[in-house]
C-alpha cells in the first residue's frame, strides 16, 4: 500500500475496512459536499450507505492504480479519516497529465490540510509518476476549494464553460494548472512551507 506522508497527515488508498469511518464523515457532510458533486446515476447503489458498493469503489480505485490511470487517496490526520484527494484521468503519451479533485470534512476545514495534501500529491505526481501537468477545476463560487489553490499560488488558466455536470447542472469551472516546470521552480519552497517539519 502506498503511503504518502505530509507534515501532519498521511495519504493512503481507501480499503473496505475504512467504510464505517468514511460513511460517518460522508453522512455528516451531506449538505457540505453534495452541492459540489456529480449527481448519482439512477439505479446505482448508494456508496455512502452500501458497504458492498464502497468495496466495489475501492476495488475500482485499486484497478485504476494498477493500470496507472488513477491514484485515489484518503486523507488521514492522527489516524482518523477526514477527506479524499484523487489524481484521476491520468493521460500518458504527449499529455503526461492528470486531474486533481479533493474534499475535506467540514469539521476539519480551515486547518489547511487540503493544501498540505495537494503539495504531497504534487510531489508524487511529478517525482514518482513523472507527470508533466496536473490540473484542478473548480466551480467559481466554491470559495473553499478556491482557497486551497490560492494558498499555494497555483496558476489560474481560465474558465471552461459548462465543464462538468454537478448536482444536476452543467457548471462552468475555473481551471488551475501546475506543471513540472513550476515544480522545479517552486517545489522545494512548497515542500518547506507545507510538508517538511517546521
UniProtKB/TrEMBL annotation:
The keyword Phosphoprotein does not apply. One of its GO terms (molecular function) is protein-N-terminal-alanine acetyltransferase activity. The keyword NAD does not apply. One of its GO terms (cellular component) is cytoplasm. Residues 8-152 form the N-acetyltransferase domain. Keywords: Acyltransferase, Transferase. Belongs to the acetyltransferase family. RimJ subfamily. This is Unannotated protein. It comes from freshwater metagenome.
